Protein backbone atom coordinates (compact mmCIF):
# COMPACT_ATOMS: atom_id res chain seq x y z
CA UNK A 1 0.00 0.00 0.00
CA UNK A 2 2.98 2.32 0.42
CA UNK A 3 3.10 3.09 -3.30
CA UNK A 4 -0.65 3.64 -3.50
CA UNK A 5 -1.14 7.15 -4.83
CA UNK A 6 -4.91 7.60 -5.06
CA UNK A 7 -6.03 10.45 -2.76
CA UNK A 8 -2.54 11.27 -1.51
CA UNK A 9 -0.69 14.57 -1.67
CA UNK A 10 2.92 14.78 -2.85
CA UNK A 11 4.64 18.08 -2.05
CA UNK A 12 6.28 19.77 -5.01
CA UNK A 13 6.67 22.95 -6.93
CA UNK A 14 5.69 22.05 -10.49
CA UNK A 15 3.50 23.90 -12.98
CA UNK A 16 0.46 21.95 -11.78
CA UNK A 17 1.34 22.47 -8.11
CA UNK A 18 1.37 26.21 -8.69
CA UNK A 19 -2.01 26.41 -10.36
CA UNK A 20 -4.86 27.69 -8.23
CA UNK A 21 -7.00 24.94 -6.67
CA UNK A 22 -10.28 26.34 -7.98
CA UNK A 23 -9.12 26.10 -11.58
CA UNK A 24 -7.68 22.62 -11.00
CA UNK A 25 -10.97 21.42 -9.53
CA UNK A 26 -13.00 22.91 -12.36
CA UNK A 27 -10.58 21.58 -14.98
CA UNK A 28 -10.94 18.09 -13.55
CA UNK A 29 -14.75 18.32 -13.74
CA UNK A 30 -14.51 19.66 -17.26
CA UNK A 31 -12.11 16.92 -18.29
CA UNK A 32 -14.39 14.18 -16.92
CA UNK A 33 -17.31 15.60 -18.94
CA UNK A 34 -15.16 15.76 -22.09
CA UNK A 35 -14.15 12.11 -21.58
CA UNK A 36 -17.79 11.08 -21.98
CA UNK A 37 -18.02 12.88 -25.32
CA UNK A 38 -15.12 10.95 -26.82
CA UNK A 39 -16.30 7.89 -28.72
CA UNK A 40 -13.57 6.81 -31.10
CA UNK A 41 -9.90 5.96 -30.89
CA UNK A 42 -8.62 9.28 -32.28
CA UNK A 43 -10.56 11.36 -29.75
CA UNK A 44 -9.37 9.12 -26.91
CA UNK A 45 -5.86 9.50 -28.31
CA UNK A 46 -6.13 13.28 -27.96
CA UNK A 47 -7.23 12.95 -24.33
CA UNK A 48 -4.55 10.37 -23.52
CA UNK A 49 -1.90 12.66 -24.97
CA UNK A 50 -3.25 15.55 -22.91
CA UNK A 51 -3.20 13.53 -19.66
CA UNK A 52 0.37 12.39 -20.33
CA UNK A 53 1.44 16.01 -20.74
CA UNK A 54 -0.39 16.87 -17.49
CA UNK A 55 1.35 14.06 -15.59
CA UNK A 56 4.73 15.15 -16.96
CA UNK A 57 4.00 18.74 -15.90
CA UNK A 58 3.07 17.59 -12.38
CA UNK A 59 6.65 16.45 -11.83
CA UNK A 60 5.70 12.85 -10.96
CA UNK A 61 7.52 10.22 -13.02
CA UNK A 62 5.16 8.25 -15.29
CA UNK A 63 6.33 4.83 -14.06
CA UNK A 64 5.88 5.89 -10.41
CA UNK A 65 2.46 7.25 -11.29
CA UNK A 66 1.35 4.07 -13.09
CA UNK A 67 2.61 1.92 -10.23
CA UNK A 68 0.65 4.12 -7.84
CA UNK A 69 -2.68 3.57 -9.56
CA UNK A 70 -2.06 -0.12 -10.30
CA UNK A 71 -4.09 -1.38 -7.31
CA UNK A 72 -7.16 0.20 -8.89
CA UNK A 73 -6.69 -1.73 -12.16
CA UNK A 74 -8.39 -4.80 -10.67
CA UNK A 75 -11.51 -2.81 -9.93
CA UNK A 76 -11.54 -1.51 -13.50
CA UNK A 77 -10.93 -4.93 -15.03
CA UNK A 78 -13.76 -6.38 -12.94
CA UNK A 79 -16.22 -3.70 -14.13
CA UNK A 80 -15.06 -3.93 -17.73
CA UNK A 81 -15.34 -7.73 -17.58
CA UNK A 82 -18.97 -7.49 -16.43
CA UNK A 83 -19.68 -4.98 -19.19
CA UNK A 84 -18.20 -7.25 -21.86
CA UNK A 85 -19.99 -10.38 -20.65
CA UNK A 86 -23.46 -8.91 -20.23
CA UNK A 87 -23.93 -6.37 -23.01
CA UNK A 88 -25.69 -7.39 -26.20
CA UNK A 89 -25.81 -6.31 -29.85
CA UNK A 90 -23.47 -6.89 -32.76
CA UNK A 91 -22.19 -10.23 -33.97
CA UNK A 92 -21.88 -12.90 -31.34
CA UNK A 93 -18.35 -14.25 -31.04
CA UNK A 94 -18.81 -16.53 -28.02
CA UNK A 95 -21.79 -17.53 -25.95
CA UNK A 96 -22.36 -19.64 -22.83
CA UNK A 97 -25.66 -19.46 -20.98
CA UNK A 98 -26.42 -15.82 -20.09
CA UNK A 99 -22.84 -14.76 -20.92
CA UNK A 100 -21.93 -13.61 -24.40
CA UNK A 101 -19.10 -11.73 -26.03
CA UNK A 102 -19.88 -9.68 -29.12
CA UNK A 103 -17.68 -7.43 -31.22
CA UNK A 104 -19.64 -4.37 -30.00
CA UNK A 105 -19.31 -5.34 -26.33
CA UNK A 106 -15.56 -5.71 -26.76
CA UNK A 107 -15.32 -2.22 -28.23
CA UNK A 108 -17.57 -0.82 -25.48
CA UNK A 109 -15.53 -2.57 -22.83
CA UNK A 110 -12.36 -1.12 -24.25
CA UNK A 111 -13.81 2.40 -24.17
CA UNK A 112 -15.00 1.99 -20.59
CA UNK A 113 -11.52 0.81 -19.65
CA UNK A 114 -9.95 3.91 -21.18
CA UNK A 115 -12.57 6.20 -19.58
CA UNK A 116 -11.97 4.77 -16.14
CA UNK A 117 -8.25 5.08 -16.55
CA UNK A 118 -8.44 8.69 -17.70
CA UNK A 119 -10.81 9.69 -14.85
CA UNK A 120 -8.60 8.03 -12.25
CA UNK A 121 -5.52 9.67 -13.75
CA UNK A 122 -6.92 13.21 -13.73
CA UNK A 123 -8.30 12.91 -10.20
CA UNK A 124 -5.03 11.42 -8.95
CA UNK A 125 -3.10 14.30 -10.50
CA UNK A 126 -5.50 16.68 -8.72
CA UNK A 127 -5.01 15.16 -5.27
CA UNK A 128 -1.27 14.61 -5.80
CA UNK A 129 -0.64 18.29 -6.48
CA UNK A 130 -3.18 19.95 -4.17
CA UNK A 131 -3.22 19.97 -0.36
CA UNK A 132 -6.54 19.12 1.31
CA UNK A 133 -6.57 22.66 2.65
CA UNK A 134 -6.21 24.08 -0.86
CA UNK A 135 -9.01 21.83 -2.08
CA UNK A 136 -11.25 23.15 0.71
CA UNK A 137 -10.33 26.69 -0.32
CA UNK A 138 -10.97 25.86 -3.96
CA UNK A 139 -14.42 24.54 -3.08
CA UNK A 140 -15.10 27.75 -1.19
CA UNK A 141 -14.11 29.90 -4.17
CA UNK A 142 -16.17 27.83 -6.61
CA UNK A 143 -19.25 27.89 -4.38
CA UNK A 144 -19.01 31.63 -3.77
CA UNK A 145 -21.90 32.45 -6.18
CA UNK A 146 -24.19 30.39 -3.91
CA UNK A 147 -23.87 33.15 -1.28
CA UNK A 148 -26.52 35.03 -3.27
CA UNK A 149 -29.08 32.40 -2.29
CA UNK A 150 -27.85 32.62 1.34
CA UNK A 151 -25.98 29.34 1.24
CA UNK A 152 -23.38 29.47 4.11
CA UNK A 153 -20.31 28.96 1.93
CA UNK A 154 -17.78 30.30 4.46
CA UNK A 155 -19.16 28.15 7.25
CA UNK A 156 -19.06 25.11 4.99
CA UNK A 157 -15.44 25.85 4.08
CA UNK A 158 -14.49 26.27 7.75
CA UNK A 159 -16.19 22.99 8.62
CA UNK A 160 -14.43 21.29 5.75
CA UNK A 161 -10.99 22.53 6.81
CA UNK A 162 -11.57 21.59 10.47
CA UNK A 163 -12.81 18.16 9.41
CA UNK A 164 -9.69 17.63 7.28
CA UNK A 165 -7.47 18.83 10.11
CA UNK A 166 -9.01 16.33 12.54
CA UNK A 167 -8.81 13.28 10.27
CA UNK A 168 -5.28 12.26 11.35
CA UNK A 169 -6.03 13.14 14.99
CA UNK A 170 -9.10 10.90 15.09
CA UNK A 171 -7.23 8.14 13.22
CA UNK A 172 -4.55 8.22 15.93
CA UNK A 173 -7.20 8.10 18.61
CA UNK A 174 -8.94 5.19 16.95
CA UNK A 175 -5.64 3.31 16.93
CA UNK A 176 -5.16 4.05 20.64
CA UNK A 177 -8.70 2.96 21.56
CA UNK A 178 -8.34 -0.15 19.40
CA UNK A 179 -5.17 -1.17 21.20
CA UNK A 180 -6.55 -0.25 24.62
CA UNK A 181 -9.64 -2.41 24.05
CA UNK A 182 -7.52 -5.23 22.61
CA UNK A 183 -5.38 -5.16 25.75
CA UNK A 184 -8.60 -5.62 27.73
CA UNK A 185 -9.53 -8.65 25.70
CA UNK A 186 -11.84 -7.32 22.99
CA UNK A 187 -11.40 -9.33 19.80
CA UNK A 188 -11.78 -7.18 16.69
CA UNK A 189 -11.98 -8.61 13.21
CA UNK A 190 -12.82 -12.25 13.83
CA UNK A 191 -15.93 -14.32 14.49
CA UNK A 192 -19.39 -14.04 12.99
CA UNK A 193 -20.86 -10.87 11.55
CA UNK A 194 -22.97 -10.14 14.65
CA UNK A 195 -19.92 -10.70 16.84
CA UNK A 196 -17.89 -8.23 14.79
CA UNK A 197 -20.60 -5.60 14.90
CA UNK A 198 -20.84 -6.00 18.68
CA UNK A 199 -17.07 -5.72 18.97
CA UNK A 200 -17.20 -2.36 17.20
CA UNK A 201 -19.27 -0.79 20.01
CA UNK A 202 -16.37 -0.41 22.52
CA UNK A 203 -14.46 1.28 19.69
CA UNK A 204 -17.18 3.60 18.40
CA UNK A 205 -18.60 4.88 21.68
CA UNK A 206 -15.29 6.26 23.04
CA UNK A 207 -14.45 7.60 19.58
CA UNK A 208 -17.73 9.54 19.44
CA UNK A 209 -17.51 10.90 23.00
CA UNK A 210 -13.90 11.87 22.28
CA UNK A 211 -14.99 13.74 19.16
CA UNK A 212 -17.67 15.59 21.13
CA UNK A 213 -15.08 16.61 23.74
CA UNK A 214 -12.76 17.82 20.99
CA UNK A 215 -15.59 19.86 19.50
CA UNK A 216 -16.45 21.46 22.81
CA UNK A 217 -12.86 22.38 23.68
CA UNK A 218 -12.13 23.53 20.15
CA UNK A 219 -15.13 25.84 20.08
CA UNK A 220 -14.07 27.38 23.40
CA UNK A 221 -10.54 27.89 22.09
CA UNK A 222 -11.88 29.41 18.87
CA UNK A 223 -14.08 31.81 20.80
CA UNK A 224 -11.20 32.79 23.08
CA UNK A 225 -9.22 33.67 19.97
CA UNK A 226 -11.86 36.10 18.80
CA UNK A 227 -13.93 33.96 16.46
CA UNK A 228 -17.38 35.48 15.98
CA UNK A 229 -18.68 34.16 12.68
CA UNK A 230 -17.13 32.74 9.55
CA UNK A 231 -18.12 35.61 7.28
CA UNK A 232 -16.34 38.53 8.89
CA UNK A 233 -12.84 37.22 8.56
CA UNK A 234 -9.86 38.02 6.39
CA UNK A 235 -7.94 35.24 4.70
CA UNK A 236 -4.33 34.29 5.34
CA UNK A 237 -4.02 32.22 2.20
CA UNK A 238 -5.26 33.29 -1.16
CA UNK A 239 -5.20 31.28 -4.35
CA UNK A 240 -5.37 33.73 -7.22
CA UNK A 241 -6.16 32.86 -10.79
CA UNK A 242 -2.83 33.12 -12.59
CA UNK A 243 -1.49 33.10 -16.13
CA UNK A 244 -0.76 29.39 -15.69
CA UNK A 245 -4.45 28.75 -15.09
CA UNK A 246 -5.52 30.68 -18.18
CA UNK A 247 -2.97 28.88 -20.36
CA UNK A 248 -4.02 25.49 -19.02
CA UNK A 249 -7.66 26.31 -19.66
CA UNK A 250 -6.86 27.33 -23.26
CA UNK A 251 -5.09 24.01 -23.85
CA UNK A 252 -7.96 22.04 -22.27
CA UNK A 253 -10.63 23.96 -24.20
CA UNK A 254 -8.78 23.36 -27.49
CA UNK A 255 -8.52 19.64 -26.65
CA UNK A 256 -12.24 19.58 -25.77
CA UNK A 257 -13.11 21.23 -29.10
CA UNK A 258 -10.92 18.75 -30.91
CA UNK A 259 -12.70 15.84 -29.22
CA UNK A 260 -16.11 17.24 -30.24
CA UNK A 261 -14.84 17.66 -33.81
CA UNK A 262 -13.34 14.17 -33.99
CA UNK A 263 -16.23 12.22 -32.45
CA UNK A 264 -18.43 10.28 -34.83
CA UNK B 1 7.16 44.06 47.45
CA UNK B 2 4.37 45.66 45.44
CA UNK B 3 5.10 48.70 43.36
CA UNK B 4 2.39 51.21 44.36
CA UNK B 5 2.31 52.73 40.85
CA UNK B 6 1.15 49.38 39.47
CA UNK B 7 -2.53 49.24 38.85
CA UNK B 8 -4.79 46.26 39.01
CA UNK B 9 -5.26 45.01 35.49
CA UNK B 10 -7.95 42.55 36.50
CA UNK B 11 -10.40 43.11 39.33
CA UNK B 12 -12.76 40.36 40.33
CA UNK B 13 -15.43 41.84 42.59
CA UNK B 14 -17.69 39.72 44.70
CA UNK B 15 -18.66 37.23 42.00
CA UNK B 16 -21.07 34.34 42.24
CA UNK B 17 -21.37 31.64 39.66
CA UNK B 18 -22.70 28.15 39.23
CA UNK B 19 -23.08 25.82 36.27
CA UNK B 20 -26.75 25.14 35.65
CA UNK B 21 -28.15 22.48 37.93
CA UNK B 22 -25.11 22.55 40.19
CA UNK B 23 -24.46 24.22 43.53
CA UNK B 24 -22.74 27.60 43.70
CA UNK B 25 -19.09 27.30 42.69
CA UNK B 26 -18.18 30.84 43.66
CA UNK B 27 -20.00 32.78 46.34
CA UNK B 28 -18.68 36.28 46.73
CA UNK B 29 -15.15 35.72 45.44
CA UNK B 30 -12.93 38.78 45.03
CA UNK B 31 -9.35 39.08 43.87
CA UNK B 32 -7.04 41.39 41.97
CA UNK B 33 -4.32 40.84 39.42
CA UNK B 34 -1.60 43.49 39.31
CA UNK B 35 -0.29 44.78 36.02
CA UNK B 36 2.94 43.12 34.92
CA UNK B 37 3.01 40.38 37.53
CA UNK B 38 3.19 36.61 37.14
CA UNK B 39 0.31 35.32 39.22
CA UNK B 40 -0.12 31.65 39.99
CA UNK B 41 -3.59 30.34 40.84
CA UNK B 42 -3.33 27.04 42.66
CA UNK B 43 -5.92 24.70 44.07
CA UNK B 44 -7.30 21.19 43.79
CA UNK B 45 -9.29 19.82 40.88
CA UNK B 46 -12.77 21.28 40.98
CA UNK B 47 -11.74 24.29 43.06
CA UNK B 48 -12.91 26.63 40.28
CA UNK B 49 -9.60 27.83 38.85
CA UNK B 50 -10.40 27.13 35.22
CA UNK B 51 -13.93 28.46 35.57
CA UNK B 52 -12.50 31.69 36.92
CA UNK B 53 -10.30 32.00 33.83
CA UNK B 54 -13.31 31.45 31.59
CA UNK B 55 -15.30 34.06 33.47
CA UNK B 56 -12.49 36.58 33.06
CA UNK B 57 -12.40 35.93 29.30
CA UNK B 58 -16.20 36.16 29.04
CA UNK B 59 -16.55 32.54 27.94
CA UNK B 60 -18.93 31.89 30.81
CA UNK B 61 -21.47 34.44 32.01
CA UNK B 62 -21.54 35.67 35.59
CA UNK B 63 -24.59 35.35 37.80
CA UNK B 64 -23.63 38.08 40.25
CA UNK B 65 -20.74 40.47 40.80
CA UNK B 66 -18.43 42.20 38.35
CA UNK B 67 -15.12 41.57 36.66
CA UNK B 68 -13.06 44.41 35.20
CA UNK B 69 -10.28 43.73 32.72
CA UNK B 70 -8.00 46.71 32.07
CA UNK B 71 -10.79 49.08 33.03
CA UNK B 72 -13.48 47.33 30.98
CA UNK B 73 -16.43 45.56 32.57
CA UNK B 74 -16.79 41.99 31.33
CA UNK B 75 -20.20 42.04 29.65
CA UNK B 76 -21.85 41.06 26.39
CA UNK B 77 -20.98 44.42 24.81
CA UNK B 78 -17.33 44.40 25.81
CA UNK B 79 -16.56 40.74 25.40
CA UNK B 80 -14.71 41.06 22.08
CA UNK B 81 -12.62 44.00 23.29
CA UNK B 82 -11.72 41.97 26.34
CA UNK B 83 -10.71 38.95 24.31
CA UNK B 84 -8.41 41.26 22.34
CA UNK B 85 -6.59 42.00 25.59
CA UNK B 86 -6.39 38.41 26.80
CA UNK B 87 -4.65 35.45 25.22
CA UNK B 88 -5.52 32.04 26.61
CA UNK B 89 -3.55 28.82 26.30
CA UNK B 90 -5.59 25.76 27.20
CA UNK B 91 -4.67 22.40 28.62
CA UNK B 92 -5.02 20.05 25.67
CA UNK B 93 -2.67 20.98 22.82
CA UNK B 94 -4.74 18.95 20.35
CA UNK B 95 -8.00 20.74 21.04
CA UNK B 96 -6.91 24.31 20.43
CA UNK B 97 -5.23 23.71 17.10
CA UNK B 98 -7.76 25.12 14.65
CA UNK B 99 -5.67 25.54 11.51
CA UNK B 100 -4.69 22.80 9.10
CA UNK B 101 -1.00 23.72 9.36
CA UNK B 102 1.14 25.60 11.89
CA UNK B 103 1.00 28.79 9.82
CA UNK B 104 -2.76 28.67 9.39
CA UNK B 105 -3.27 28.10 13.08
CA UNK B 106 -1.24 31.16 14.05
CA UNK B 107 -3.17 33.15 11.45
CA UNK B 108 -6.57 32.06 12.80
CA UNK B 109 -6.86 34.78 15.47
CA UNK B 110 -5.62 37.40 13.01
CA UNK B 111 -8.17 36.33 10.41
CA UNK B 112 -10.90 36.74 13.01
CA UNK B 113 -9.79 40.33 13.51
CA UNK B 114 -9.80 40.93 9.77
CA UNK B 115 -6.16 41.95 9.67
CA UNK B 116 -4.80 42.88 6.28
CA UNK B 117 -3.09 39.96 4.51
CA UNK B 118 0.40 41.46 4.13
CA UNK B 119 0.50 42.45 7.77
CA UNK B 120 -0.82 39.00 8.70
CA UNK B 121 2.01 37.20 6.90
CA UNK B 122 4.54 39.40 8.61
CA UNK B 123 2.98 38.91 12.07
CA UNK B 124 2.76 35.14 11.61
CA UNK B 125 6.43 35.02 10.65
CA UNK B 126 7.67 37.08 13.59
CA UNK B 127 5.51 35.24 16.12
CA UNK B 128 6.62 31.84 14.87
CA UNK B 129 10.23 32.99 14.98
CA UNK B 130 9.62 34.16 18.54
CA UNK B 131 8.76 30.62 19.60
CA UNK B 132 11.36 28.98 17.31
CA UNK B 133 8.75 27.24 15.18
CA UNK B 134 9.21 29.06 11.86
CA UNK B 135 10.86 26.08 10.16
CA UNK B 136 7.84 23.97 11.14
CA UNK B 137 5.36 26.30 9.44
CA UNK B 138 4.18 23.74 6.84
CA UNK B 139 3.67 20.91 9.33
CA UNK B 140 0.27 19.51 10.14
CA UNK B 141 -0.61 19.08 13.85
CA UNK B 142 -0.42 15.27 13.64
CA UNK B 143 3.33 15.60 12.98
CA UNK B 144 4.07 17.80 16.00
CA UNK B 145 4.82 16.93 19.62
CA UNK B 146 2.65 18.20 22.47
CA UNK B 147 5.21 20.83 23.43
CA UNK B 148 5.49 22.03 19.84
CA UNK B 149 1.71 22.37 19.59
CA UNK B 150 1.68 24.48 22.77
CA UNK B 151 4.41 26.64 21.24
CA UNK B 152 2.21 27.18 18.22
CA UNK B 153 -0.70 28.04 20.51
CA UNK B 154 1.50 30.63 22.23
CA UNK B 155 2.62 32.01 18.86
CA UNK B 156 -1.03 32.37 17.85
CA UNK B 157 -1.58 34.46 20.96
CA UNK B 158 1.60 36.51 20.69
CA UNK B 159 0.61 37.47 17.14
CA UNK B 160 -2.40 39.26 18.62
CA UNK B 161 -0.18 41.13 21.12
CA UNK B 162 -2.45 40.81 24.17
CA UNK B 163 -1.70 42.51 27.49
CA UNK B 164 -2.58 39.44 29.52
CA UNK B 165 -1.75 35.79 28.97
CA UNK B 166 -3.71 33.15 30.86
CA UNK B 167 -2.14 29.70 30.97
CA UNK B 168 -4.99 27.36 31.86
CA UNK B 169 -2.99 24.31 32.94
CA UNK B 170 -1.14 24.79 29.68
CA UNK B 171 1.77 22.58 30.71
CA UNK B 172 -0.09 19.79 32.46
CA UNK B 173 0.02 17.41 29.48
CA UNK B 174 3.71 17.97 28.75
CA UNK B 175 6.82 16.18 29.91
CA UNK B 176 9.10 18.00 32.40
CA UNK B 177 11.42 19.26 29.66
CA UNK B 178 8.55 20.52 27.49
CA UNK B 179 6.98 22.16 30.53
CA UNK B 180 10.19 23.98 31.43
CA UNK B 181 10.67 25.10 27.80
CA UNK B 182 7.14 26.53 27.60
CA UNK B 183 7.48 28.35 30.93
CA UNK B 184 10.86 29.81 29.95
CA UNK B 185 9.36 30.92 26.68
CA UNK B 186 6.40 32.65 28.33
CA UNK B 187 8.75 34.28 30.83
CA UNK B 188 10.87 35.72 28.00
CA UNK B 189 7.80 36.98 26.17
CA UNK B 190 6.49 38.49 29.40
CA UNK B 191 9.69 40.46 29.99
CA UNK B 192 9.96 41.55 26.37
CA UNK B 193 6.36 42.65 25.92
CA UNK B 194 5.54 43.69 29.52
CA UNK B 195 2.74 41.19 29.85
CA UNK B 196 0.70 40.12 32.82
CA UNK B 197 0.65 36.34 33.18
CA UNK B 198 -1.91 34.31 35.09
CA UNK B 199 -0.84 30.72 35.39
CA UNK B 200 -3.41 28.20 36.57
CA UNK B 201 -1.60 25.12 37.69
CA UNK B 202 -1.34 22.02 39.82
CA UNK B 203 2.38 22.12 39.49
CA UNK B 204 3.73 23.53 42.73
CA UNK B 205 7.21 24.03 41.31
CA UNK B 206 5.71 26.11 38.53
CA UNK B 207 3.82 28.19 41.09
CA UNK B 208 6.98 28.56 43.18
CA UNK B 209 8.54 30.70 40.44
CA UNK B 210 5.59 33.13 40.28
CA UNK B 211 5.61 36.66 41.70
CA UNK B 212 2.48 35.98 43.72
CA UNK B 213 0.32 32.99 44.51
CA UNK B 214 -3.41 32.84 45.16
CA UNK B 215 -4.75 29.66 46.72
CA UNK B 216 -8.31 28.75 45.83
CA UNK B 217 -10.24 26.02 47.56
CA UNK B 218 -13.88 25.16 46.89
CA UNK B 219 -14.42 28.50 45.17
CA UNK B 220 -12.96 30.52 48.03
CA UNK B 221 -9.74 32.45 48.05
CA UNK B 222 -8.06 31.11 51.15
CA UNK B 223 -4.65 32.72 50.86
CA UNK B 224 -2.60 35.10 48.76
CA UNK B 225 1.04 35.95 49.16
CA UNK B 226 4.50 35.58 47.70
CA UNK B 227 5.38 31.91 47.02
CA UNK B 228 7.82 31.79 49.94
CA UNK B 229 5.09 32.60 52.46
CA UNK B 230 2.48 30.34 50.88
CA UNK B 231 4.79 27.36 50.77
CA UNK B 232 6.01 27.88 54.32
CA UNK B 233 2.51 26.98 55.42
CA UNK B 234 2.80 23.28 54.63
CA UNK B 235 -0.09 22.37 56.93
CA UNK B 236 -2.50 24.54 54.97
CA UNK B 237 -1.26 23.09 51.69
CA UNK B 238 -1.76 19.56 52.98
CA UNK B 239 -5.22 20.39 54.27
CA UNK B 240 -6.45 21.43 50.82
CA UNK B 241 -4.73 18.49 49.17
CA UNK B 242 -1.75 20.19 47.57
CA UNK B 243 1.86 19.07 47.64
CA UNK B 244 4.64 21.15 49.11
CA UNK B 245 7.33 22.16 46.62
CA UNK B 246 10.48 20.10 46.35
CA UNK B 247 12.66 22.35 48.49
CA UNK B 248 10.07 22.47 51.26
CA UNK B 249 9.92 18.67 51.26
CA UNK B 250 13.70 18.51 51.45
CA UNK B 251 13.74 20.94 54.36
CA UNK B 252 11.12 18.86 56.16
CA UNK B 253 13.16 15.70 55.56
CA UNK B 254 16.30 17.41 56.91
CA UNK B 255 14.37 18.55 59.97
CA UNK B 256 13.26 15.01 60.66
CA UNK B 257 16.94 14.13 60.71
CA UNK B 258 17.52 16.86 63.30
CA UNK B 259 19.15 19.46 61.16
CA UNK B 260 18.27 22.78 62.62
CA UNK B 261 16.66 25.06 60.08
CA UNK B 262 14.39 27.87 61.15
CA UNK B 263 12.78 28.30 57.75
CA UNK B 264 9.96 26.30 56.19
CA UNK B 265 10.59 27.30 52.63
CA UNK B 266 13.58 28.44 50.57
CA UNK B 267 14.01 28.61 46.84
CA UNK B 268 16.60 26.38 45.19
CA UNK B 269 19.47 28.85 45.42
CA UNK B 270 18.63 29.73 49.00
CA UNK B 271 18.60 26.08 50.00
CA UNK B 272 21.90 25.36 48.24
CA UNK B 273 23.49 28.35 49.95
CA UNK B 274 22.21 27.19 53.32
CA UNK B 275 23.48 23.61 52.86
CA UNK B 276 26.87 24.93 51.76
CA UNK B 277 27.02 27.08 54.85
CA UNK B 278 26.00 24.13 57.02
CA UNK B 279 28.69 21.90 55.54
CA UNK B 280 31.42 24.52 55.93
CA UNK B 281 30.65 25.26 59.61
CA UNK B 282 30.85 21.57 60.52
Automatic annotation (TrEMBL), chain A:
Protein name (Swiss-Prot/TrEMBL): Energy-coupling factor transporter transmembrane protein EcfT
Membership in a protein family: Belongs to the energy-coupling factor EcfT family.
Subunit relationships: Forms a stable energy-coupling factor (ECF) transporter complex composed of 2 membrane-embedded substrate-binding proteins (S component), 2 ATP-binding proteins (A component) and 2 transmembrane proteins (T component).
GO molecular function: transmembrane transporter activity
Any GO CC annotation of this UniProt entry: plasma membrane
Transmembrane segments: 25-42, 48-66, 73-94, 106-128, 246-262
Annotated keywords: Cell membrane, Membrane, Transmembrane, Transmembrane helix, Transport
Pfam families: CbiQ
Main location: membrane
Bilayer topology term: Multi-pass membrane protein
Function: Transmembrane (T) component of an energy-coupling factor (ECF) ABC-transporter complex. Unlike classic ABC transporters this ECF transporter provides the energy necessary to transport a number of different substrates.
Location within or outside the cell: Cell membrane
Cited InterPro entries: ABC/ECF_trnsptr_transmembrane (IPR003339), EcfT (IPR024919)
UniProtKB/TrEMBL annotation, chain B:
Residue ranges that the Swiss-Prot or TrEMBL entry lists as coiled coil: none
Principal localisation: membrane
Database matches in InterPro entries: AAA+_ATPase, ABC_transporter-like_ATP-bd, ABC_transporter-like_CS, ABC_transpr_CbiO/EcfA_su, ECF_ABC_transporter_ATP-bd, EcfA_1, P-loop_NTPase
CC per GO annotation: ATP-binding cassette (ABC) transporter complex
Listed GO MF terms: ATP binding; ATP hydrolysis activity; ATPase-coupled transmembrane transporter activity
Locations listed in the record: Cell membrane
Pfam families: ABC_tran (PF00005)
Alphabetically ordered keywords of this record: ATP-binding, Cell membrane, Membrane, Nucleotide-binding, Translocase, Transport
ABC transporter domain segment(s): 10-243
Membrane topology label: Peripheral membrane protein
Family: Belongs to the ABC transporter superfamily.
NCBIfam families: ECF_ATPase_1, PRK13648.1
Protein's UniProt name: ABC transporter, ATP-binding protein
Taxon lineage: Bacteria, Bacillati, Bacillota, Bacilli, Lactobacillales
Amino acid sequence: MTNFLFGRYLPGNSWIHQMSPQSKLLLSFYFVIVIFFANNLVSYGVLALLIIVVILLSGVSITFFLKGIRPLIWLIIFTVGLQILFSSGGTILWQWGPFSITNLSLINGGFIFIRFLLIIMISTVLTLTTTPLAIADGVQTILKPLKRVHFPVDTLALMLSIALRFVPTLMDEMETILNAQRSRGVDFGSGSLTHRVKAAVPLLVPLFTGAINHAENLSTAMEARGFTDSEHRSKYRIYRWQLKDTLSWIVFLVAGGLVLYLRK
Amino acid sequence: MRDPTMKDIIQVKNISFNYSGQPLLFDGLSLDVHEGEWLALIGQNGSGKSTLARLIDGLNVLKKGQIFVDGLLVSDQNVFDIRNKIGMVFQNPEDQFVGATVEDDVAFGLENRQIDREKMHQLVKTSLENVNMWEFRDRIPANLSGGQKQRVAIAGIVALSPKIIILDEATSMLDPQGRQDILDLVRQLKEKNHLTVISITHDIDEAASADRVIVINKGQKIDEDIPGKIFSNTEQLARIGLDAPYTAQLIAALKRRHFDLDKEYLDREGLIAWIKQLVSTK
